[in-house]
Amino acid sequence: MSAGDKIKNAVQQTVGKAEEVVGKKTDDAELHAQGQKDQSMGAARQETEKAKDAAKD
């Protein structure tokens, strides 16, 4: 996994967490859900990249 991919996935997870918190604080269900979705997508991409790396070894 390239360093750029790791950073991109981590940023997506961090942004998702921020969206989730802001959505919860402002009672914005859509923003809260989007934040959770972004976190899940970032984590899934991270796992996919880890699997690719393991398959190369």
Automatic annotation (TrEMBL):
Any Pfam family hit: CsbD
Protein name, per record: CsbD family protein
Gene3D superfamilies: YjbJ (1.10.1470.10)
UniProt-annotated stretches for the region Disordered: 1-57
Naturally occurring in which organism (per UniProt): Pseudokineococcus marinus
Basic and acidic residues composition-biased segments: 17-31, 46-57
InterPro entries, per the entry: CsbD (IPR008462), YjbJ_sf (IPR036629)
Family: Belongs to the UPF0337 (CsbD) family.
Domain CsbD-like: 5-57
